[in-house]
Amino acid sequence: MQEPAPNTIKGLDSSEDVCLPVLDLPSVDSTDMTDTSIQPKTAAESSDPVPLPLKKFRSIGVQVNIKPSAKAKSTNCNLKVKHSYRSVGVSCGIGPMPDVPTVAQTPATSTPFKPVKRPRLEEEPEDDPVELDTIPFIDCEDADPLWNLNTSDILEASIDDDDDDIDEENTGSLSDSKLFAVEKGQLVLLFNRCHQCGLLGASAVITSTEGCQVRIEQSCLGCESKWIWKGQSLVGGYPAGNLALSTAILSAGALPGKTLRVLKFWGMQAISPATFFTHQRRFLHQAVRNVWNEEQERVLGAMQTTAILSGDARCDSMGHCAKYGSYSLHDTIHNKIICTELVQSNEVKSSNAMELHGLKKALSVIEEAKPDAQIVLTTDGHKSVAKWLREEKADKVKHHLDIWHVSKGLWKKLSGLAKKFPLVAKWMKGIRRHLYWCAQSSNGDPELMVAKWKSVANHIANIHVHEDKRFPECCHGKIYREWFDPASEAYDKVSRILLAKQLLVAVAKLSPDGQTSGLEGFHGTVIHFAPKMYHFGYNGMKTRLQVAALHFNENAGREQRVAEKTGQSCHSIHFPKAKKGEYIVRAVKVDRTYRYAEKIATEVKRLVNSRKTHEIGEVPPPLCSKYTKPTKDTAITEHSAHMRYRNK
Question: Global pTM?
Fold first, then answer.
């Protein structure tokens, strides 16, 4: 067996040598040695270091530094162990020796004892970071630098002098790291042991905070070293945690004021609203645009040559004074939102004109991507939209009306009549079902739909043979119901509603295929991301509409949940207020996914690393731009004069 090299012993691993410093030891009597065949040389006899045998000798503790690492985001702490500094006991035989003085035992008049720097222990870097749960907890209350530690407690023995700088750029996405809530006192307690020499008793002070990021400065009296630690890595010069928080607020459709107030009440260090809006203006708007453009391109590519679409507008407030109007087109075959366009009221003559302008912008997007596409479009009964499609787009767009919107108007008229005539209430559901049947059983033939609809006026009076040759008689068998008297006032009023000219025109244009029910579901999703009770800027509203569309497209086609035990499909029973005591059955879907949030975070990181400010293009001027704005002093003076007059 090859003898170990001088001044080296076998370390923690049998395949790796650990170098020891040469100690200037006092002379030792050979009679005190266990093995009398070995005699130590004096310094005069040889200047070379004395090889130390490894058998039957005393053991002393040798300090090896392995430094701990902990990344923290303010009070949010992300711990990934890369290196550790700990005191490790190494056994070696060097004969009888006096006690080695420690720092505490060194006389005050002598030079303070400083540990000799050990050579670096080279090890292969680990591919995966060590999880926090695998680190054994070791309690060492005393400040003994020779504190012994088992070899199994050593996670990593590599010492890197360059690891003091932790401001390296983050190479992962903003959402890669897990965050933990850590109290301030517990966070500072982690820095009680010196980063350089490993001695306990180092002082740590939180010197500054930047949003969620915390900066801690550690000072050690033993080795007189200082170490600055920051709780977050940097992405393009920005703290990664601050960017991640702003991205998460927008991706979740949350309101920054409420979210940051929750963190403030909790005592959590967080960014300010001004920081959020800065991130949103510089990076988030553009990141969402890029992700939405990619999604829109994918949906347009899957759209068929003859596209069956539904379109409808949504205003940001009730009434005829809305500031924003968004128009969305929905692919009823794939259940995806194709485009959603935002219109501000001062772009058109009035708020009522926003719907038509939004439809024009939406159709231009489809025509640019698919010039040869034939569109079957289902909308509500907006008159200006129907006129424009009839006069300008008759060759490319076939226009239909949504059944639900037509039946909703009919239902309101019959409900008012039912308050006076109870028999009308008994026929309301049957009349509404007949309207749906006319549209779905006529294959888009407008004349046949009108003929079937007119028959309902005879049917409720127990007359089942009709004058129209397209539909000469009813298709049902013999039935027993309470019929209307053709000579009664109730029948006269009901028949006038059913055979009104405006309703007959609408019935002729009923959609046999696509409806706007999926689009109404999207409008319900938009309520979560852009509530009507809050005001947003133009870019903020547009960005939130696009995030809502990303969420809808990802989760609209979810499968129905299946019970694990029985293997049956899951359903739930609900009692909507509109049903007035009647129940409905809904299919329980699987949980939602949020992969779009990861895409937005990745795009934000890419934009930030580009070191460029991504400002969104021009926006419409504010609504008050056409008015004369007084100076602030003038406005205050007039207000004060008005208040003095009121108080008299």
Answer: 0.71
